[in-house]
Design a protein that fits this description.
Strand content: 5-15%
Structural class: mainly alpha
Mean pLDDT: 84
Helix content: 40-55%
Distance between the termini: 155 Å
Number of helices: 8
Amino acid sequence: IADVLVMTVEDGAKFFSAVPAIAYKLETLNRVGLGYSKVCQQATTLSGGEAQRVKLAKELSKRATGRTLYILDEPTTGLHFEDVRKLLEVLHELVDGGNTVLVIEHNLDVVKTADWVLDIGPEGGDGGGQLIAAGTPEDIAACKESWTGRFLVETFRRQDERRAARNKRAKAPAAAAKQSSTKTAAKKPPAKKPAAKKPAAKKAPAKPHAKKTASPAK
């Protein structure tokens, strides 16, 4: 039992793979970015973002109705990029199921994937509280008065660079293989024409020898 309690949620899901009722709950926690947490971790030691994700995992375990409003306050706090990606997949899955997800977030990796953004500012605290821009992430990026928009422009630029680099890497093996194939393709030299046979030299006919005739004796 002690060995199980000190397992991470991710390891626990694999360990209990033969027990669907337990594995499903642990896998749901893993999907919302809590795979690193210990199975024995007490709820009072969770951060605010972690506690929200536990509640979200509980909701995911319920039968979906498609009529739920989820409100999350900075759920990605302290998460590694890969865990942020997992959480975003879950949030989009909820939206695809007909639910509405409202997220208060500063993480641009989350903001850029939203369907609609409300940018409140222009500053934080007492310097904010005004609606600066509203629209798609691209609309916010086009708003010069929005600080969020300025950072989104840079985020989109890096995203395009990474996409171009991935495409370049994907094309490189094919280009190398094509080039290698071209180099190794054996080209057969043209067949040599048979050398023309020289006509055999004709021997001159032998000259007839003069026959000596015996002269009659006088």
